[in-house]
Amino acid sequence: xxxxxxxxLEEKRSIILEKWFxxxxxxxxxxxxxxxxxxxxxxxxxxxxxxxQGIQGIFGALLGExxxxxxxPFLEDIIKVRAIQDFTSAQAMGFIxxxxxxxxxxxxxxxxxxxxxxxxxxxxxxxxxxxxxxFNIYVKCRxxxxxxxxxxxKRMTHTLLKxxxxxxxIPFDELNTVTKNxx
Length: 183
Hints:
By secondary structure, the protein is mainly alpha-helical. It has one domain. The protein is built from eight helices and no strands. The chain has helices spanning 5-11, 13-25, 30-38, 46-62, 72-84, 89-114, 117-163, 172-182.
């Protein structure tokens, strides 16, 4: 009797996670990816640690070890990091789809032998669903980032205007008087 896909994914978990991690690191410049692969200390390499922990949690959620929604904090951690880095949205989100390729490349013979193409399609559909969740997280992170940048720009502009004596702050009680007189 052949194996099902979940059993194969569990059996090859460490290989799949290692290849997926390497694929994700491949999206970074060579010097950065080399550092992230070699440096295992979570404090010296918080991004690499976050990715490593994140993909383990995501993979576990995809295998049904926990509620799918419980894998989202891991996903959110990775997305937050990639949202502030110098990636296009496609590059930032592409790591999710690397999992599909990694699984197919790692398990191609077993998938053929056990004729579990339907299970593979189901798994890949879950990965696609995960990508949709990730995109929503990414958009929210980018919106927050732009809001922060906008607020910082306003603050810096105001500070420069004050230094150049081109800004005047109206005390709150005077503001109420000015407002009432203009009505």
